[in-house]
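Two proteins, back to back. First:
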Amino acid sequence: MDLLWQDLHHRDLSVAQLYAILALRSRVFVVEQQCIYQDIDGADLARDNRHLLGMLDNNVLAYARILSPEDAQQPVRIGRVIIAAQARGLNLGYRLMERAIASCELHWPGVSISLSAQAHLQGFYRRLGFQPVGEIYLEDNIPHIGMQN
């Protein structure tokens, strides 16, 4: 599948792109995973945060949000990693994460990268160079673990 990849600062998102991102996140994280939580958390349009989109025919099929470090001692954070249901099984997760890591290295060179992984995906993130940090914890009733590269 040949996606159009875009790595955008939040100020460069179109209204249609932001709507598509929020709709995908709601469809998967809230409806599909049956997890009622406040997805729109104020970080989408803050600081130097970025949005990585993999699109096909104006549909967002792969997405990750990259949160800029809050200060010089903090890591850059990758989150809201998502593959649309119709695109799962096509190895887009690796392509998405490789692009997310490359974006972090480009925009914040030398800064460590962290993420909060669903615990059952530890192996996936380990293959990308991330290691667990701390213990498994519940986030919105889903087991998660902190990971860092």
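And the second protein:
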Amino acid sequence: MNPLALFAGLVGFIAVALGAFGAHGLEGKLSVEAQDWWQTATFYGLTHAVAALALSLNDFPPLRRAGWAFLFGAALFSGSLYAMSLGMPRWFGIITPLGGVSFLAGWTLIIIAAARKR
């Protein structure tokens, strides 16, 4: 079993399901700002799930760590935006940048791995 691939698939599934729910089930129920948060959460969650899935196919440890950073970032970044869209207080948004930092850490790990790999 490949846990990184498993969780990448799970995050991708959740992003697609919540994206569809936001477009259809929440239509007309969210403010414009909350709709923007929902769309941003879906976009970043899905794109980083795909990136993590691609990284799961590599055995180079720094690249696999980047995949985990992406999934952790998706949970924090997208999760906090979904929660705020559904009515959590705005201060809950303090979590969102932590997810963004995790995304950046993942991309940094990819850059470092690419520079070191021969």
